[in-house]
């Protein structure tokens, strides 16, 4: 499965669960860890976990099982490592606090379609 295909099902899952202020960065040629980094916000801890579970469900639908999830049920931040795509799902306060997007300034911010 290509990194673009992984990115596509990831963005679909985020949109389906109403992730907010979603951004994706093309880091090819800038990062050896992943081709794409995605960040989105959730209005609550419950929504944060719903978004992560939706991404996992989409991965299973396309028979993609090469992923890891970091964080706990009490976390305000979950990281999903999908190989060539890394997804950070934050509560709004945690996203503001950690400001991980500053790490990706060398990448190209992708223009995402709003559904």
UniProtKB/TrEMBL annotation:
Subcellular location as annotated: Cytoplasm
Domain of life: Bacteria
Keywords: Cytoplasm, Repressor, Translation regulation
Alphabetical list of InterPro entries matching this protein: Iojap/RsfS/C7orf30 (IPR004394), NT_sf (IPR043519)
Gene Ontology biological-process entries: cytosolic ribosome assembly; negative regulation of ribosome biogenesis; negative regulation of translation
A GO MF term: ribosomal large subunit binding
GO CC annotation, single: cytoplasm
Record-stated family: Belongs to the Iojap/RsfS family.
Complexes and interactors: Interacts with ribosomal protein uL14 (rplN).
PANTHER family with a match to the protein in the record: IOJAP SUPERFAMILY ORTHOLOG (PTHR21043), MITOCHONDRIAL ASSEMBLY OF RIBOSOMAL LARGE SUBUNIT PROTEIN 1 (PTHR21043:SF0)
Function description: Functions as a ribosomal silencing factor. Interacts with ribosomal protein uL14 (rplN), blocking formation of intersubunit bridge B8. Prevents association of the 30S and 50S ribosomal subunits and the formation of functional ribosomes, thus repressing translation.
NCBIfam families attached to this UniProt entry: rsfS_iojap_ybeB
Identification of the protein by name: Ribosomal silencing factor RsfS
Organism in which the protein naturally occurs: Lactobacillus kimbladii
Gene that this sequence comes from: rsfS
């Amino acid at each position: 499965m290509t990194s673009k295909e992984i990115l596509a099902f990831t963005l679909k899952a985020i949109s389906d669960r109403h992730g907010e202020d979603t951004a994706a960065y093309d880091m090819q040629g800038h990062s050896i860890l992943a081709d794409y980094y995605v960040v989105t916000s959730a209005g609550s801890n419950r929504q944060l976990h719903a978004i992560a579970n939706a991404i996992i469900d989409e991965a299973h639908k396309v028979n993609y099982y090469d992923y890891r999830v970091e964080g706990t049920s009490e976390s305000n931040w979950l990281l999903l490592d999908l190989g060539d795509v890394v997804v950070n799902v934050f509560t709004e306060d945690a996203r503001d606090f950690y400001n991980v997007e500053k790490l990706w300034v060398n990448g190209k911010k992708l223009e995402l379609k709003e559904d």
